[in-house]
Design brief:
The chain is mostly helical. Among the domains are: 254 residues, Orthogonal Bundle (Fic-like fold); 74 residues, Arc Repressor Mutant, subunit A. Helices cover 49% and strands 8% of the residues. It contains 17 helices and eleven strands. The protein has a three-stranded antiparallel β-sheet, with no helix packed on it. The radius of gyration is 25 Å and the shape is globular.
């Protein structure tokens, strides 16, 4: 959870930066066996924000450990954050009790992220091989989807849309925003559900915006992603598409940041941090999956917005995967892989801030493989449903140019439909749209769930069930 002082002024008092690189409990130097490494970027570039921070391209070779013990994994060094000392005093607005204000008052430390635009990156060979394997699996997934779903003259659009929606749902679940496939489809159709369904639809829009700007990831377009995410929210619409002007932190009380697991940079540092991040994203000399992982971790460290940082940060992953040509047609469910082990993901973000990118690179490698494997299974399931639906429609005495055939693939993308929706997407009259729906209903593809003559709604239940089963599989695992 991200706490902010959104309705109260920031804490006052002076601050000072701690000297040297950050060292936190539990992070100790460990002996390692010599390993092969791969270096990327300028070997002389440190990208640090403090003279004492270590360079990112120096691999430490230590004496071998006892032969009976396996060597610990070689770290992937990145410049750690600095900590800045501040004093926090909660606003005396009557919102908190005197006791709560006293407990929340005192010294806290916010982060000052290192600059990464020009860092050299050394990836141990075992990790580099793992990342390469995961990358190839994502490429194969994208190709498999294009081949599987375009068979028989189909278009990729509906499948691409349902995968994007699946990824948006998984990304939202990481933030504890859960919604079933039926409610999400109904909210997308007519905005009738509200609550979490509306928030997840906002995430779908943010993902669509991210992919639209995939080949031009600048600050303005990242702000546009955030605007798409929260612009429809009454609570956040005034702050949508704007960098924060207040302090934010992760965990503990909203009364103050003391004891938080992560206190983001001071708001006046955000624009420079984001400019540096965009420069890093623009590089073309790094392995793509590793670059995505580090860009995402840096974005989450900056936490540039009042709310929605996690969802925009994960949309950024897909914009990079698409823009750099790794997954040109599909949206692999990477967030499903992260959701598979969220504790590992949050621990990896902490390790990144402490100067070791290996855990976040490993996390992304695992998430990519999980996305490729389970995403392929979902593609095959949806494709099989569509094949069976086509067989059912073949059983009717329909002309080859009947509107039902045009509507059929669209019920994968939008498995809850009404006549206005069908008329709009097919570009036909309401009467023609009604005939198309009737054809799919007579074939047993669509089932009416509304009753009555007004506000009629139909579902493709097997698609909805497949999407819910996929979400449940992730939850169980």
């Amino acid at each position: 959870m991200t706490a902010t002082n959104a309705s109260r002024p920031a804490g006052d008092g002076s601050h000072r930066a701690t000297t040297g690189a950050v060292k936190k409990p539990g992070i100790k130097a460990q002996n390692t066996k010599a390993q092969s490494i791969l270096s990327f970027g300028d070997a002389d570039s440190t990208g640090t924000s403090a003279d004492a921070a270590p360079t990112a391209n120096i691999a430490q070779t230590m004496p071998p450990m006892d032969a009976a013990q396996p060597a610990p994994p070689e770290p992937c060094r990145v410049p750690p954050v600095e900590l800045e000392e501040h004093y926090w005093t909660p606003s005396d607005d009557g919102y908190y009790s005197r006791t709560a204000r006293r407990k929340a008052s005192g010294t806290y430390y916010s982060t000052r992220p290192a600059r990464i635009a020009a860092i050299g990156l050394t990836i141990p060979s075992d990790l580099a091989a793992d990342l390469d394997e995961a990358t190839q699996q994502l490429v194969a997934f994208d190709s498999r989807a294009a081949e599987r779903f375009s068979a028989g003259g189909r278009t990729l659009g509906p499948l691409s849309a349902v995968l994007l929606r699946t990824e948006s749902t998984s990304s939202s679940r990481i933030e504890n925003l859960t919604v079933g496939a039926r409610r999400l489809a109904r909210e997308s159709l007519d905005g009738s559900q509200g609550g979490n369904a509306a928030l997840v639809v906002g995430n779908v829009r943010a993902m669509e915006t991210a992919l639209e700007f995939a080949r031009n990831l600048n600050e303005a377009n990242i702000l546009a992603m955030h605007s798409a995410l929260l612009g429809g929210s009454d609570e956040w619409k005034d702050r949508a598409g704007r960098y924060r002007d207040q302090l934010v932190w992760v965990g503990v009380s909203s009364a103050g940041p003391r004891g938080a697991s992560h206190v983001a940079p001071q708001p006046d540092q955000v624009p420079d941090c984001m400019a540096d991040l965009v420069a890093f994203i623009d590089r073309d000399d790094l392995p793509i999956l590793a670059q995505c992982a580090i860009a995402h971790a840096q974005f989450e460290t900056i936490h540039p917005f009042i709310d929605g940082n996690g969802r925009v940060g994960r949309a950024l992953i897909h914009a990079m995967l698409r823009g750099k040509g790794l997954t040109p047609t599909m949206t692999p469910p990477v967030s499903a892989g992260i959701l598979h082990d969220t504790e590992r993901y949050f621990d990896a973000l902490t390790a990144y801030r402490e100067g070791d990118a290996r855990p976040i690179l490993e996390c992304f490698s695992s998430a990519a493989r999980y996305a490729a494997h389970t995403g392929t299974e979902l593609i095959d399931t949806l494709s099989a449903i569509l094949d069976d639906d086509a067989d059912r429609l073949h059983g009717l005495p329909l002309r080859r140019n009947a509107l039902g055939w045009r509507l059929l693939p669209l019920v994968v993308e939008q498995p809850v439909v009404n006549v206005p929706y069908v008329a709009r997407v097919l570009g036909v009259s309401a009467a023609s749209a009604t005939r198309a729906v009737d054809q799919l209903q007579r074939a047993g593809v669509l089932v009416e769930v509304s009753g009555g003559k007004r506000g009629r709604v139909w579902e493709e239940r097997r698609v909805l069930d497949a999407l819910d089963e996929y979400a449940e599989m992730i939850r169980r695992q």
